[in-house]
Amino acid sequence: MHCPFCRNPDSRVIDSRTSDDGLSIRRRRQCPKCGGRFSTVETASLNVIKRSGVVEPFSREKVMSGVRKACQGRPVTDADLAMLAQQVEEAIRQTGSSQIEANEIGLSILGPLRELDEVAYLRFASVYQAFESLDDFDAAIAQLRADHAARPSATPVAADDVQ
C-alpha cells in the first residue's frame, strides 16, 4: 500500500477492525518513512460472469434496478429493494466463490422477491425464466397457490374474543 503523502511503497498496519456489516475490514496504517497515518478499507471482490463472457464487479445497484422494473406499481419501497439486494449479495458471498455467473444471481433473486411481492416475482420470473406461453404463467401461479395451501394459516380471531 503506497503512502498517500510521500508515495512510499510500504506501510505498517496499526489497527484492524471489521465493519458493522462484516463485509469489509478497516485498517489504520502508518508510513515508516514520513510517519503519516491513513486508513484503508478492504473488501473481498465478487465478480459476475455475464452471458457474453465479460467479467464485471458485482453491483447491488444493478440488482435493485433489475428488480425495480418488476416492482413497478407495486407497494415495494426502495428500502425493501435495498434489503433484497443485500440478501442476494450475502447469499452469493456465502457460496465462497469470488466469481459467479449472472444466471446464478437471477436464481438467488427469485426467493427473496417471492417473499417480498408475489406479483413482482411473477413479472421477474416471466422474463428471467423466459415464459413462452400462458401455460408457463399458469404453472407458476399454480405453484404459488400450492405453496399457500401448504402453509399453516393463522387461526382467525372470533369477534367475541376481541375486547
Described by strand count, sense and barrel closure, the largest sheet is: 3 strands, antiparallel
Number of strands: 6
Query: What do the pLDDT scores average to?
Result: 88
CA radius of gyration is 23 Å
Query: Total helix count?
Result: 5
Give the SSE order as H and E letters.
Answer: EEEEEHHEHHH
Strand residues, percent: 15-25%
N/C terminus separation = 67 Å
Widest sheet: strand order?
A: 1-2-3
Task: Please state the overall shape, judged from the principal axes of the Cα atoms.
Answer: elongated
Q: Look at the helices and sheets and give the structural class.
A: alpha+beta
Unreliable spans are 154-163
Share in helix: 40-55%
Descriptive notes:
With 163 residues, the chain is an alpha+beta fold. It is 43% helix and 18% strand. The chain contains 5 helices and 6 strands; from the N terminus they run βββββααβααα. The protein has helices at residues 60-70, 78-93, 102-116, 118-128, 134-150, and strands at 12-18, 24-30, 37-43, 47-49, 55-57, 99-101. A 3-stranded antiparallel beta sheet has the order 1-2-3, with no helix packed on it. It has a 3-stranded mixed beta sheet with strand order 5-4-6. A hairpin with a 6-residue loop joins strand 2 (24-30) and strand 3. Helix 1 crosses helix 2, helix 2 packs across helix 3 (102-116) and helix 3 (102-116) packs antiparallel against helix 4 (118-128). The longest helix is centred in the C-terminal third of the chain and has 17 residues, at 134-150. It is elongated, with a radius of gyration of 23 Å. The protein starts with 11 loop residues before the first strand and ends in a 13-residue tail after the last helix. Residues 154-163 have low confidence and may be disordered.
